[in-house]
């Protein structure tokens, strides 16, 4: 009978990996876990409570905000505010950074960048959605944290993770020493270690891209898609095309099975649609820690300059050999 290891127990156990740790990051991760359980509860009964559909507002990206976007955003912001370990929040749903000033957070040292609900277009049709988070340590040493604290390169992340609200609810995270996955056991209300030391296969046979944008893709992407579709049994091609429309779900599938996810430039998103700070950087950190690769077709995502909170970028991410093949096509044809 295997012993269940909860997220809380695991976090404490791993704290010894960081000799100077005083428990703040552990408490921060636990705060995120609590908010995730609350969001999960609403996602699981979304059709029964008044939480489907649009809020009637738009965010800074011009996206109509779903009620669940707002609910999730509120839950994570309050959990992080009450937890006392976070001094600054960047959220997809807030144009400006949220500076946390409360007596419990007066010497908080962590910054959390979050996509509170990823895959909003899938909420009303009962398809998996998720939450993505990225954690930095503040660089400024006195007074209030600064905007610069929130504009750090992806290589500076101290932790990153996602929650996927799917057929089961999983929390997957890294602190830079590998990736571990936890499945929520609703009967005890705990995330339990279910996927220790996750590694993405270096090869895969699934490509994930919104081919509706084909005519606007760079030539290198068009060539890569044709490569995926060619008949070649020796390399198990044609690959399978799978696109859920929630980055988190597409990425999680590829983490388990191998595969590549691409969101290249399109006419409506000439710099790519996905946001660097709270979608691409955290996912790139996780995928690299699991042995995969994440670039914009040319440059490592984690090394990209962060100039603004909601800046967008292209992303080619997943099994290393597949990403490298797509990069070769970009180098040759774009
Ligand atoms: P969000 O719901 O947080 O705004 O993110 C949606 C993103 C991402 O989850 C997904 O991969 C992508 O949008 C899908 O975009 P298209 O519908 O343009 O394919
Ligand atoms: Mn959105
Ligand atoms: Mn998103
Ligand atoms: Mn979102």
Write up this protein.
This protein starts with 6 loop residues before the first helix and ends with a helix. It is 30% helix and 23% strand. The chain contains eight helices and 15 strands. A hairpin with a 3-residue loop joins strand 7 (159-165) and strand 8. It has 334 residues and is an alpha+beta fold. Helix 1 (7-14) runs antiparallel to helix 2, helix 2 (24-44) runs antiparallel to helix 3 (67-83) and helix 5 (219-229) crosses helix 8 (320-333). Residues 92, 115, 117-118, 120 line the site of one manganese (II) ion (MN).
How would you summarize this macromolecular structure in one to three sentences?
By secondary structure, this protein is of the alpha+beta class.
Bound small molecules, deduplicated: 2,5-anhydro-1,6-di-O-phosphono-D-glucitol, manganese (II) ion
Shape: globular
| Widest β-sheet, arrangement of strands | 4-3-5-6-7-8-9-10
Q: Biggest β-sheet: count, sense, barrel?
A: 8 strands, mixed
- Coarse structural class: alpha+beta
SSE string, helix = H, strand = E? HHEEHEEEEHEEEEEHEHEHEEH
Number of helical regions: 8
Say how many strands there are: 15
Strand content: 15-25%
Terminal Cα separation, in Å?
55 Å
> In percent, how helical is the residue content?
25-40%
Average pLDDT number = 94
Give unreliable regions as ranges: none
Our Rg estimate from Cα atoms comes to 19 Å
